[in-house]
Amino acid sequence: HMQTVFLKDLVSAVAPTNPYSFVNYLVKHKKFYRFLTSRLRTVSREEFSDYLRWAAEDMNNLYFSHTVENIDFDKKSRLFLVQTSRGEYFARNICLGTGKQPYLPPCVKHVTQSCFHASEMNLRRPDLSGKRITVVGGGQSGADLFLNALRGEWGEAAEINWVSRRNNFNALDEAAFADEYFTPEYISGFSGL
């Protein structure tokens, strides 16, 4: 499941009646009442991904699978010139989506049956029964893997170790302070720094 509430979608905080809201997605896909009666504050990652795909398919100003070759800022027009493999575009703002790039530390020369990236967990569905396992990485993915291993989702492991290069484990913060990131006051204050 997502770690944030569904109202932190593409538009609801700014324009709750916007046609690209998650609630409108639920209505358009005839899922609203099922969602309403489920009393969930969060949704599955798959459902939210489907929502984002639905919104993106209706917009004609999103460009996927373009190789960006160069970005320049034109001081005179105060616009970015983005040169891609498929043409040039001007933009006031730029948001880059680099995709998922699994990171394996240099000590891991090869992905094997017993050493692999978290993104492969659902594909492999390994049997960890009686095995000593180590989760490397202190972020949200590491926290999810550790918790699922601890709960025995892939069998009862004999030993579970969790290591990170960070000085703390950094799962997504669910505290009220983290919700401040989504308020107009926080955004105004942060952008003024």
Description of the molecule:
With 193 residues, this protein is an alpha+beta fold. It folds into three domains: 1-62, no CATH class; 65-94, no CATH class; 102-193, no CATH class. It is built from seven helices and five strands, in the order H-H-H-E-E-E-H-E-H-E-H-H. The protein has helices at 22-28, 32-38, 45-57, 121-124, 140-150, 176-179, 184-191, and strands at residues 68-74, 79-84, 87-91, 132-136, 159-163. The strands form two sheets. A three-stranded antiparallel β-sheet has the order 1-2-3, with no helix packed on it. Strand 2 (79-84) and strand 3 (87-91) form a beta hairpin. The mean pLDDT is 81.
What are the defining features of this structure?
28% helix, 193 residues, 7 helices, 5 strands, two-stranded parallel ribbon, globular, alpha+beta
Summarize, please.
Pathway: Siderophore biosynthesis. With 193 residues, the protein is an alpha+beta fold.
Any chance you could write out the topology, listing elements then pairs?
Layout: H1 22-28, H2 32-38, H3 45-57, E1 68-74, E2 79-84, E3 87-91, H4 121-124, E4 132-136, H5 140-150, E5 159-163, H6 176-179, H7 184-191
Cofactor: FAD
GO molecular function: monooxygenase activity
Family: Belongs to the lysine N(6)-hydroxylase/L-ornithine N(5)-oxygenase family.
Structure classification: alpha+beta
Number of helices: 7
Strand fraction: 5-15%
Order of helices and strands: HHHEEEHEHEHH
Distance between the termini: 33 Å
Shape: globular
Total domain count: 3
Mean pLDDT: 81
* Strands, total number: 5
Organism: Escherichia coli
Family: Belongs to the lysine N(6)-hydroxylase/L-ornithine N(5)-oxygenase family.
Cofactor: FAD
InterPro entries: FAD/NAD-bd_sf, Lys/Orn_oxygenase
